[in-house]
Amino acid sequence: MDWCFEQRVVAHKCLPFGIRIACARLCWRSLALLCHAMCSGYQLKDFTVVTAPRTKTIDDIASMAGVSAATVSKVINNRPYVSAEKRATIERVIAETGFVPSQRARGLSKRRSFILGLLIPYTSDQLFSDPHLLECVRGIESEVNAREYNLLLSTARAPSEAASACVRLLRTDVIDGAIVLETHDLHQFSAMLGQRTGPLVFIGYPQAAAIPAVHADDYGGALAAMRHLLGAGHRRIGIISSHLRPFAIEERMRGVADALAEAGLMNDPALVALGDFSPESGEAAARALLGLADQPTAIFSLNDRMALGAMRAAAALGLHIPADLSLVGFDDVALAALATPQLTTVRQPGFALGAAAARLVFGLLDGVPLSASPVIPTELIVRGSTAARRAERA
Prior knowledge:
Blueprint: E1 3-10, E2 20-26, H1 28-39, E3 47-51, H2 58-65, H3 69-76, H4 84-97, H5 103-110, E4 115-123, H6 124-128, H7 131-146, E5 150-156, H8 162-170, E6 177-181, H9 187-192, E7 200-203, E8 213-216, H10 218-231, E9 237-242, H11 246-262, E10 272-275, H12 279-290, E11 298-301, H13 304-316, E12 326-331, E13 344-347, H14 350-365, E14 375-376, E15 379-381
Parallel strand pairs: 4-5, 4-6, 6-7, 7-8, 8-14, 9-10, 9-11, 11-12, 12-13
Antiparallel strand pairs: 1-2, 1-3, 13-15
C-alpha cells in the first residue's frame, strides 16, 4: 500500500526561538528522518497519518459491480458474451469511479506495448511543411486512437541518415508494429523483416513482395491529369517532377508517358524539370520551362506545392493563368482551393492512405491474413487553372 504522511511538527530542542517546522507531505524516505528526529530527543505533537487515495484496479471495479474481473475485462475490450444488464452496471461503475485501465497491466497480459511506430525517413522540417504527409499522419492517428494505442513518431535528423534512424527503432522491442513512409533505400527495411516479430507496413511502393504496403493510384491520377490537358488541345506540356518519393513519382511519370503515347506524342526530356516538392523549387522549375524558346502552353506539376510556386513564376513573367498557361497539380492540399485561380489538381487522399495503413498493421497484429495491397483511388478535381489552348498559340 502507498502511504503518505501529513503532520504538524513542533520542535523545542536545539532550535533557536522555538521555530515551527511544517512538513506538508512525507514519503517513506522522509519517515526515516522523522524517526531520527524522535530518537534525537525532539518532542513531536499533533502527529496525524493519512492514506492517499489508492488507484482503482480492475478487481475493485469487479467487486463494486458484483462480477468477475474477467467480465469487466470483456466490457473494457468491447467483447461479447456479457449480458446487457451486467454491461450497463460495469459501465456505470467505471464512469462513477473514473477508472482507466492500466496500460502497463494491459500490455503485460497481452505481451504488447500498445505503441505503434511511425517512421518517416525525412527531416521534421520536410514533414511539417508538407500538407499531404500531415494528412497521412492524421489518418494514422485516427485509427491508433480508436484502438487505444499510442503513436511514436520518428524522423531523421538529416536526409543522409533517414533510413538508419528508422532501422534503429525497428530493432528495439518498444513498438508492436510500424508504418514506414516510402524512402530511397528500402533494402535495409527488407532485411528487417526476418528480425522483427511485429508487422511492418509501407505507405508507398514496396520493392520486396514480402513487405505489405498501401499506396494511392499515382499512375491513374497522372493519366487523368494529362488526358485533361491533352483534351483541352495542349500539345507542349511541361512536367515538374522530383527525385523525392521516387517510386510514386515513377508511377506518375508512367501515367504521363502513356497519356502522351495515346495522343501520338513523344515524351520530350526538355519539357521535364525537377523540384524538391517545395514552392521555391516549383517556381525555379517553371521559370526554366517557360524560358524555353518554344515554351509549353500547360504545366503538370507532380505535387501542389510546386504548382503553387509555378503560379508565382507565371505571374512574375506576366503570364495569366489559365489564359496564357494552364496548370495542374497533384495532392489537392487545402491551399489548392484557396489559390487564385483555384488550382486544378489530382486529389490524393492522404487521410485515407494513413488510415488504411494503420488498419493493415492492426489486422496483421490480430492475425488477419494479408491479401492484396490496398490501392487508394485518386480523383481529378477540375478548377479554374486550366482552359483550352488559345488558337493563336496552336
